[in-house]
Amino acid sequence: MRGSDYAEMRAFAAIIEYGGFARAASHLGVSPSALSQTIRGLEERLGVRLLNRTTRSVAPSEAGARFLSRLLPALADLDSAIADVSTLRDAPSGSLRINAPRIAAVHYLAPLIGPFLEAYPDITLDIVADDRLVDIVASRFDAGVRLGEMVEKDMVAVKFGGDREMMVVAAPAYLDRLGAPETPRDLRRHRCINLRWPTDLSLYRWEFERDGEKLEAMVEGPLIVNEPDVAIQAVLDGVGVAYLFDHQVRPLIAAGKLTHLLKEWSPAFPGFYLYYPSRRQMLPALRAFIDFISRPSGKELTNRIRSNSLMPVPAHRADAE
């Protein structure tokens, strides 16, 4: 079938569907005179009149009605075939670049990679773990991952991985020597392990809240690190008190290697979000990833991450994110 044949038959069906030449022409994006000429050409080629026309109405002739009854199912089949091909053409593919702090890359993205790429084998994930504050637009990333409080207001954000909690921890041997702090203010007399922000190299202030009271503690101690895995080992060795993400230390607390301190001062807070600049002209690969983490199977994986049943390796707090 020639392309002109399809256009003529689609034009004829549209005239019947929209009840006239003017509305059909508007739908098809052509002028009424051009549409009239198309129908005359079709009628001449078939050798029969398809439409009975007056100044006020248009209706199919007997031949036109019989032709339409056969034509509509055929057009439906053609539309379905075209839709199937379009689905293949628009199947998510290409590269999806995501910027994430190391903790999010290891604990949140890594467990999703296998299932996601199995579902979308034509997508290439390009995940860059970077603890600095990164402008994803300027750096040409398609999306990023950050703590909710650090996502810019002009970004579109999708919750990713559930709420989180920070935990003050120390080794039992350390507590046997120096005792346990009862309030955040007691940390001034303890040997605390500081984390340095990678963005401006300042020291992280430990944040606490209880019954509406908020405190920030600038702690001191024998160790400053920019790699929380080092802090974890140091606190295990009794060097001092550390302040770390819950999923980094829960297994160690459960094993009796660390003790959770100041529990009532560390409520849960919104965790990580996947964020991107705009919903307009979204990459199919990004749309697929958002749909994946939002559907039940993806949520089940993120829930397992949240409950710490997926623990690839110790990882540090997203200081830059």
Structure description:
By secondary structure, the protein is an alpha/beta fold. The chain has helices spanning 3-18, 21-28, 32-46, 62-89, 102-119, 172-178, 228-236, 246-254, 284-294, 296-306; strands at 51-53, 58-60, 94-100, 123-129, 143-147, 156-159, 166-170, 193-195, 206-210, 213-217, 223-225, 242-245, 259-261, 272-276. The strands form 5 sheets. Strands 4-3-5-14-6 form a 5-stranded mixed β-sheet. It has a 3-stranded antiparallel β-sheet with strand order 12-7-13. A hairpin with a 4-residue loop joins strand 1 and strand 2 (58-60). Helix 1 crosses helix 2 (21-28), helix 1 crosses helix 3 (32-46) and helix 1 crosses helix 4 (62-89). It is rod-shaped, with a radius of gyration of 32 Å.
Comma- or semicolon-separated keywords:
D-Maltodextrin-Binding Protein, domain 2; 3 domains; 321 residues; alpha/beta; 14 strands; disordered C terminus; five-stranded mixed sheet; rod-shaped; three-stranded antiparallel sheet; Arc Repressor Mutant, subunit A
Can you summarize this structure?
The protein is an alpha/beta fold and 321 residues long.
